[in-house]
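Course exercise 7: structure representation. Students receive a sequence record and must write out the corresponding structure in token form. The form below is the worked example handed out in class, using ParB/Sulfiredoxin domain-containing protein (129 residues). Read each field label carefully; the graders check that inputs and outputs are placed in the correct fields and that the protein name is recorded exactly as given.

STUDENT ID: A-19
EXERCISE PROTEIN: ParB/Sulfiredoxin domain-containing protein
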Amino acid sequence: MADPEITVQWKKEPDEHDYPAAADYLEMLAEPDVIEQVLRALRAAPVTHKKAKDLLRASQLEILPSYNPYVRRDLAKITSGKALSPILVVRGDFRKGVPMQIVDGYHRVCAIYYADENIAIPVKIASLP
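STUDENT ANSWER:
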């Protein structure tokens, strides 16, 4: 689907419901006090921009298939010009072989990859305490 004419619309900040979704994912990886610290750091983090291909590489995640219903939904939003929410990530540590974690927005990253892997995605990045 890569099309140089594609323009993706982005919200300035993540949706409020993205933070509880991130916490729900993080509950499988960390204790509640760590999750609270990470969420505070994510809320305070500035929005930066990263390419879809780099987010997938740093997270060591495989791209979801384009027929995944949530990827399809986000591709439809891109096509219709609906604004997407920025991605929330927790920084990894390459020295220890720890990948970055996409704690909210994996489907959006995959949809953007299908649209154009070089599109700059707004991202909030937190480090583990």
